[in-house]
UniProtKB/TrEMBL annotation:
Compositionally biased spans, kind Pro residues: 63-78
Xref: Pfam families: TPR_20
Highest taxon listed in the record's lineage: Eukaryota
Identification of the protein by name: Thioredoxin domain-containing protein
Coiled-coil stretches: none
Transmembrane feature ranges: none
Entry-linked InterPro entries: Thioredoxin-like_sf, TPR-like_helical_dom_sf
Location of the region described as Disordered in the Swiss-Prot/TrEMBL record: 53-79
Amino acid sequence: FVLTRSLGPRVLPVRPSGTTLQAARGLSIAACGIGSAWIRDGGSSTSRLLVQSRRSFSEGSTPGPPTAPPADQGPPPEKLFEVMSTTFVKEVLESVEPVIVFACAPQQQEMVAPLAQAVQATPGIRLALMDAQKCADIAQQLRVENLPTTLAFTGGKCVDMQPGEMTAGSAGEYVQRIVGLAQTKAATDAMQVAGKALSEGQVEMALNIYMQVQTQSRETHGGPATAGMVLCAVQLKDLDAAKDLAETLKSDFPKDLEDPIVKQALNAVEFAEMGASPDSNLAELEDKVRADPGDHQARHDLALALFGAKKYEEAIEHVLTIVKGDKAWEGGKAKELLFKFFDTLGSQHPLVAGGRKRLASLLF
């Protein structure tokens, strides 16, 4: 459910996730129930972060950047509060923490007690009491048809709606479920911010976010976050750290090995090793290909060396040349290498879409 419908002059806008915005600004990446985690903006080198992550993994624990005291942001928001039509956007839609809204008639307000007790006992979530008669415009937009109705909001969106009164047991389960949803969304948002930061060359920022997600959302995002750390290490040309983290990725998160970012990270380490190898003599391989353009093995090796040296466009071009000359060479070895290149670069890389189109035209 998303608030998009206008009632006369009043419009309740959908707000972007507070968690995403904060992560992008280098603030808390996990305000929605994960806890306050602060991304450092200086004071220690990126290499130190990698050393910390490697040491933590070798000791069997998960790394996390040290927390820093937050800047003065005024008093914390109330855990339990009454919401009005005039405060709904600020208090609910713009809240960085998930908010449960208990919509009821005036005579039903005592029914909120089980939810209030559960929320008071749970960090990272708030409860709003809403008089559905006083806030009839909000109730109408939310399509509240029965009273009482419990609604849950995270990131500016209504993610759950449940009519009826709750018992103490069901209220506790409900609160925990909403916190879990918010944690998952916060981690997913943070991963997107980290990926964007990495693509823009902000490696230390990306590494900090990946480390924090790996620490605080290990069960749901541990594998992809560790893969992000691998990619950061490769970008920093710290091959030892990248290899250590890649081994941890394979041993600790086997269920994530088919995840695109995990495949991208493992391939990146493999290609980085090839690029760092003294055998990757580009000039010698280029001479071989010039001397015999039909030497597919030499062209294949040249493509690997070029990719390891981050000359991605040239590498892709050479593999496409092999496919054009012999689709079935070595049992489709060139096609497999090209897919590996695409996985490593990621679906958002500008070379991937064009490369896939050209490959398809050659194959079909």
